[in-house]
TrEMBL record:
Residues 1-22 form the signal peptide. This is UPF0577 protein KIAA1324-like. The keyword Membrane does not apply. The keyword Signal applies. Residues 89-245 form the Elapor1-like galactose binding domain. Keywords: Signal. InterPro entries: Elapor1-like_3rd, Elapor1/2. GO terms for cellular component: membrane.
Amino acid sequence: MHFECFVFVIGFFFLFFQKDYHYEFTECDSSGGRWRVSVPKPLTCVGGAPNPPTRVNDCRISCDAGTYFNRTTLECLSCPPGTYSLGGGIKFDTWEHLPLGFHVSVESFESNFRLLHNFATDSGVNCSEYGWKPKKSFISSHGGPCAATLSYSVELVKPGVLSYYYQYTDPSILFNFEAQNDQCQSIEDVEKYKWPRLTEEAKWRTSTVQLKAGLNVLYWKTVGMGFSDKMKKSKPVRIKKIEIS
């Protein structure tokens, strides 16, 4: 009696759908280009990526206002009805909570003004009361005995412009702006932007800053110079809108 053995090789086919992954871009390389790669959802695309990386030869691609860069087709396409594009920019004008990418830090601060006028700060002061706080239509910071910093980092593929819409009515608060590159060096003409001007009561002012291509780390800082617990709180510095284009 003769038996024949048959070996069946079963092939596994992995079906991937666009909803199961998203595209991301690598950092720009020495040739001025980058790669688009597919990033699958965890435990969804098991067994390999949906498609191979795609080369994008120019890191400086930017689309005009009214169009957006489609990561699937790698082209600038018109915005769908009911949507709009800033043309490669970003805008923050809603402050229900701290937007993604922003960071707030606070630390105790003693000024010579306070010490000379016996406004010594209680070492147990709660600095969290004086940090930048989202207030729905704006973000604000009281001066107080603490230095409060609002920061945001942005990577620009070409030179851009920062505009922020602010209210600053109390001269007892120092309000300072600074922008640095990836080497922690301040931008050119820093003195022009470093000290935003006071505004009239209930008035707002726009400050515009020129940014270079590459990484820009933006800082808005406040600190009260004459504050004491026995004095009335300083009027807050408010920022209503931040736009980068």
